[in-house]
UniProtKB/TrEMBL annotation, chain A:
This is DUF4249 domain-containing protein. The lineage of its organism: Bacteria, Pseudomonadati, Bacteroidota, Chitinophagia, Chitinophagales. Pfam families: DUF4249 (PF14054). It comes from the Bacteria. InterPro entries: DUF4249. It comes from Chitinophaga jiangningensis.
From TrEMBL, chain B:
It is a multi-pass membrane protein. Its main location: membrane. GO terms for cellular component: cell outer membrane. Residues 223-301 form the TonB-dependent receptor plug domain. It holds the Pfam family CarbopepD_reg_2. This is Outer membrane receptor proteins, mostly Fe transport. Signal peptide: none annotated. Keywords: Cell outer membrane, Membrane, Receptor, Signal, Transmembrane, Transmembrane beta strand, Transport. GO terms for biological process: siderophore transmembrane transport. The lineage of its organism: Bacteria, Pseudomonadati, Bacteroidota, Chitinophagia, Chitinophagales.
């Protein structure tokens, strides 16, 4: 009798949960080639502008994003200055690099044009530097602490990343999450997931100085030193990074509405946004 | 009769002391006379109770001989019985009881219609005078009041599924109970021509009644008959994604449905993530679905009312059902507590995939630790009712239902000193409704009926997660527990009155006060081993208490022999956070009789909804959160116009309806960005939604066969439903997520023989809107190519206009066959059902797949409902 029950039940469950997947022969239309302009502008750093071209959704190979080496890129600051731009190849990829660093307190307007494509433009300001200090961690532990003082009264946005450090250089990114007791996001506990970056706003700690506790996926054994990178973001940068993370987390499933990645580039795609990074390098105790 | 005999027959008994000092209508009197004139009775009352009668012999004739035997009865009742046949009315003037001729030309009969076998009262039964072409319908409590010409002595009483019968009226206008015999108890089904149930005799349009039998006849998914799945086969109702018990009525969203269980609202009407309805269909007496033309007594939602009436319980005999299917088992039992006075019904249902799962398959994690899995739903119904008197009846009903899932894992492996080791982890999630109602039905007189009710309904979602990890090398213990809860409550008192002042008017009026309590998104965290104080350990969403008040009145009015109106108004107010929202919502229904018994109908309704649902996915999920209207997000409102024609054929075999509608909706909300399933910080939800408008319009046709061995219906819907939000899709109009242009439903039931019956349903739906990306492009992660981790940016999909594509058309054939063996005292039934007989791969959802093997990206669809057979065994006793 038990075998019969098993058979009936297993049959039904197999049928039910054998939800199948099938390729659909719908050609996904392409909106046509558009210029893609990407840059995060860091104060006191040169501006690296990447200009590429969009591709149809069906294109599998990510390296197919064609660089627009012949594009005309202009970088203008709100003080009226125009920054010289040169094309450089760095680590095999081409960037339009400003001839002088960006200055805090200015707004930058960047435009790009390439033959046969509609010219694009975007602008953003630069955020103040984050007030982060006192990074610490213990060997064989999973917790990293640092203190962050938030600027009061304004909406502030941050990205956190953690790297191992060898020979005074960051080597590899660690998988981590904000200790769930610190961001009150139950889904973090449920998912028990870790990532290489955390995007957040200051709605839970506006104007406060507090100790952040990060929880690494694995015990800290790899390195004598660690680096916590705290990056202040403009609203544009935060919107972009947050929606990129959501789109990737959604894995293309469109049972819900798809996540639209924020873009402030007029007539094209991409992002031009200000960031301000502070790196806390410290010895592991 | 001799003089001696006459003298001997005059008996007078006085059981109470003589009340010569005064009397009132409640005075208990005892009168026993045989074949004496009314005048003699009056003299006796005067002599023994000091009641002085005053009347004119020219106007009032008291010569009729009567035989009376009453003991300790109310004076008024005795007088009503004495004088009603002679049309004599009486009134008190000082200490005199004045008799006057009653010149009324009408009479009012009132009472209840009930099932002869069980005593169950029958809502929607028709009382019809074929000669006068007049009639009325019992209300949802089975009560009727029929005012007709004075010489009307009998009517036809009918109800679908019951043998129509001629009912003789009593001479006086007292409360009567009419018993109808179910045709299922008869060997032969007799179809009799009565016109009362005909669609052309009802001003109400856009309404469909679903009987419990209709639900149970439909093919079953995993062995369970389902109410909402049956409603989805009605024109104008869409189910959303394939296999889900969604309810999208005339382009409205699921939060715009007012679902009432014995008058109490339900906030989430599904089990198992929307696969099954909340309620065991075996305890449902009837269900009315209003798609539009809402009567004034309903309010609070924009798009539909699903009014579910549960069985009251058999007043005469004990009986019940028990069934076992693939996914659940259930039983119900009903019977008298005091025969013909008090009855009860109780039912329970539990699903058990977890029991089989745990016994057959064990879950293991990567470390081979075994997990205890529990995943099931249950629901329990209980109802008791008591008849205090022919005019008073009390109902007490209770429902609770819950979905629960638990997963607990305890480590059995030896800790690795260099790694993080799990000691234990646990995850519990549950959600469900609890509903209670106390109702009192009272008849004040032949023309006035009331239902006073106290209602309570709550929906809650709760989850708890905890884990313990140990890191031996650092002597670090991680012991954290988090909880998240969300709750919505409503409690209220409601009074509904049904007043039938004349044959041309049927007035309903009432009032209600409801208190809403919103406690969304309450979370707590405890880090038992942490040394640093976290940000905070508890976060709450916007908690609110709101008061809702309403008043309504409606009149079913016959203006001319062929022109009828139902005019009403629903006034309501909603007080929340010190702000009062209010609205006046007119309701109008018109009916004009066309030649050949066709009725032309029209309706205009305005509706208001003071609560919004924060939902990510356009279909009901347990984590959805209700929030009240605020300064920035005003209450929703809608206006709907409907036109149509309807007719029931002469022998009530066929029904035909054709309706068109146009509805606009204001102050709807939509999330700009998905918030995630569980969002702890809801305090700024107003910043995350866009407020906009919606429109829906279309036409529905339905041809139904209601009687005979072959029954069923064919329905077709042509519809459009669109939305516009300032911050979404660039402010341009876009279709509603479940905007289907064409819907076809065919429902077929066939009695094959004494033991066998067959059912089938086929539905076809054109594709739903979906949004596909229009390009891909390179993203960026860092500001400088010299940054620590820098490389090619992620590939990003670019989305253009919302809903730039439509999914494939869906269609599915479901069949079911019942074999029933009737025994003298019980019966047993085997049901075999097959869902999606020809295994059509209807899409559940689509996504753009990155196929690393084929090195391609393409659109892929996921199908969750392939061909799915099931079997259910049930016994009925």
């Amino acid at each position: 009798m038990k075998k019969l029950v098993f058979f009936i039940y297993a049959f039904a469950l197999v049928i039910l949960w054998c939800s199948c997947e099938k390729r659909v022969n719908i050609e996904i239309a392409y909106d046509g080639d558009k210029l893609v302009m990407n840059t995060f502008i860091q104060p006191d750093s040169l501006i690296y502008v990447r200009v590429t071209r969009s591709v149809p959704v069906s294109v599998y190979d990510e390296t197919a994003f064609k660089e627009e080496a012949g594009a005309q890129v202009n970088i203008a600051a709100s003080d009226g200055s125009v920054l010289p731009v040169v094309l450089q190849t760095i680590a095999g990829r081409r960037f339009f690099v400003s001839g002088m660093p960006a200055k805090a307190g200015l707004q930058y307007n960047i435009s790009a044009a390439s033959s046969g494509l509609q010219a694009v433009s975007a602008y953003d300001t630069l955020p103040a530097a984050p007030q982060a200090r006192d990074g610490s961690a213990q060997k064989s532990s999973t917790r990293i602490k640092f203190i962050l003082k938030d600027h009061p009264g304004t909406g502030n946005y941050y990205r956190l990343r953690v790297f191992t450090v060898e020979n005074n250089a960051a080597k590899s990114a660690l998988l981590f999450r904000l200790d769930p007791a610190f961001n009150n996001n139950l889904i973090d506990i449920i998912a028990n997931g870790n990532s290489t970056s955390l995007i957040m706003d200051d709605s839970r700690f506006d104007g406060r100085e507090l100790t952040f506790v990060l929880q690494t996926q694995d015990p800290i054994n790899q390195s004598d030193s660690l680096m916590v990178e705290v990056t202040a973001l403009t609203h544009n940068a935060w919107s972009y990074l947050r929606t990129v993370a959501l789109q990737q987390g959604n894995s293309g499933v469109i049972v819900s509405e798809p996540i639209r990645v924020f873009s402030n580039v007029l007539n094209g795609y991409g992002i031009v946004a200000g960031i301000n990074t502070k790196q806390l390098v410290f010895k592991v105790d | 009769m001799s003089l001696t005999g006459r003298l001997l027959t005059v008996l007078f008994l006085l059981s109470l002391p003589l009340q010569v000092l005064g009397w009132d209508w409640q005075t208990k009197v005892t009168v026993v006379v045989q074949h004496q004139s009314l005048q003699t009775v009056c003299e006796l009352l005067e002599k023994n109770y000091g009641i002085h009668f005053s009347y004119s012999r020219d106007l009032v004739n008291l010569s009729r001989k009567v035989t009376v035997t009453v003991h300790n009865q109310r004076l008024k009742t005795v007088l009503e019985d004495l004088f009603a046949p002679d049309n004599i009315k009486f009134t008190r003037v000082g200490d005199l009881l004045v008799l006057l001729p009653d010149n009324r030309t009408t009479r009012t009969i009132n009472g209840y219609v009930k099932d002869a076998a069980t005593g169950e009262r029958l809502p929607g039964a028709t009382i019809w005078s074929p000669t006068l072409k007049q009639g009325t319908v019992t209300n949802q409590y089975g009560f009727f009041s029929f005012t007709t010409t004075k010489d009307t002595s009998s009517v036809v009483v009918s109800f679908i599924g019951y043998q129509p019968q001629w009912q003789q009226f009593p001479q006086n206008d007292r409360t009567i109970e009419i018993s109808l015999e179910s045709t299922t108890h008869l060997k032969e089904v007799v179809v009799s021509g009565t016109e009362g149930n005909n669609l052309q005799n009802q001003t109400q349009m856009s309404k469909v009644n679903i009987s419990s039998a209709a639900v149970n006849k439909t093919p079953r998914l995993l062995g369970d008959a389902d109410l909402i799945r049956t409603l989805q086969a009605i024109p104008g109702v869409s189910g959303g994604m394939d296999g889900v018990s969604g309810l999208h009525v005339r382009g409205g969203s699921p939060d715009q449905n007012l679902i009432l269980l014995d008058g109490s609202p339900i906030f989430n009407f599904s089990h198992f993530f929307g696969i099954f309805s909340l309620i065991n269909p075996d305890v449902v007496k009837s269900t009315d679905l209003y798609k539009g033309a809402f009567p004034a007594r309903f309010g609070g939602r924009l798009s539909s009312v699903v009014d579910i009436t549960l069985k009251d319980g058999d007043m005469k005999n004990y009986h019940g059902d028990a069934a076992i299917g693939l996914i659940s088992t259930k039983f119900d039992l009903e019977g008298p507590i005091i025969k013909d006075k008090t009855s009860f019904i109780v039912s329970a249902r539990r699903s058990y995939p977890d029991l089989v799962y745990n016994s057959l398959i064990r879950l293991e994690d990567d470390e081979k630790n075994e997990a205890d899995l529990s995943a099931y739903f249950y629901d329990i119904n209980a109802k008791v009712n008591h008849i205090f008197s022919p005019k008073d009846r009390l109902y007490l009903s209770f429902y609770t239902g819950e979905d629960k899932m638990n997963l607990h894992l305890d480590s059995t492996s030896i800790p690795d000193t260099a790694k993080i080791n799990m000691i234990s982890s646990g995850f519990d999630v549950s959600w469900g409704n609890t509903i209670g109602a106390l109702r009192w039905n009272h008849i004040y007189g032949p023309r006035l009926f009331s239902n006073i009710s106290l209602n309570y309904s709550t929906y809650s979602f709760s989850t708890q997660i905890g884990y313990k990890y140990i890191l031996p090398a650092a002597n670090e213990l991680i012991d954290q527990v988090g909880t998240y809860r969300s709750r919505m409550e409503i409690a209220g008192v409601r009074a509904d009155f049904d007043y039938r002042p004349s044959p041309d008017h049927g007035v309903r009026f009432g009032t209600a006060v409801n208190i809403h309590d919103f406690k969304p998104s309450m979370s707590t965290f405890a880090d038992k081993t942490g040394s640093v104080t976290p940000l905070d350990t508890m976060a709450n969403g916007p908690q609110n208490t709101a008061a809702e008040m309403l008043l309504y009145i409606e009149d079913e009015w016959q203006l001319t022999p062929s022109f009828f109106v139902n005019v009403g108004i629903h006034a309501s107010g909603f007080l929340v956070s010190g702000k009062l929202y209010h609205s006046l919502q007119p309701r109008l229904g018109l009916r004009y009789m066309l030649p050949k018994n066709w009725a032309f109908k029209a309706a205009y309704t305005q509706m208001n909804q003071y609560i919004h649902l924060l939902s990510n996915y356009g279909t009901s999920l347990p984590t959805d959160i209700w929030v009240p209207a605020t300064d920035r997000v005003a209450p929703m409102s809608s206006r709907q116009v409907a036109l149509g024609i309807a007719k029931t054929s002469n022998r009530q075999v066929y029904e035909f309806t054709l309706e068109g509608y146009y509805k606009n909706m204001h102050n709807m909300i939509e999330l700009r960005d998905p918030m995630g399933f569980i969002t702890p910080d809801l305090l700024r939800w107003e910043d995350q939604v866009s407020v906009g408008r919606g429109w829906s319009y279309g036409g529905e046709v339905m041809v139904a066969k209601k009687k005979g061995n072959t029954t069923g219906w064919i329905g077709y819907t042509l519809s459009w439903s669109t939305r516009r939000f300032a911050d979404i899709n660039g402010g341009k109009i876009f279709p509603y997520k479940y905007d289907h242009r064409h819907d076809v439903e065919v429902v077929f039931n066939q009695v094959l023989s004494k033991n066998w019956d067959f059912s089938a349903s086929w539905r076809f739906t054109t594709g739903s809107p979906m949004t596909l990306p229009v390009a891909s492009y390179e993203g960026i992660e860092t500001g400088s190519p010299w940054d620590p981790v820098s490389g090619p940016g992620n590939s990003i999909d670019r989305y253009g206009n919302r809903y730039n594509y439509r999914t494939e058309n869906s269609h599915r054939l479901d069949i079911g066959i019942n074999w029933t063996k009737q025994r003298p005292k019980w019966s047993r039934t085997w049901n075999f059902s097959v869902i999606n007989v020809y295994n059509h791969k209807n899409p559940f959802y689509y996504y753009v797949k990155r196929d690393d093997e084929a090195k391609q990206r393409y659109l892929s669809k996921v199908v969750i409902l392939p061909i799915l057979p099931s079997v259910t065994y049930s016994v009925k006793f």
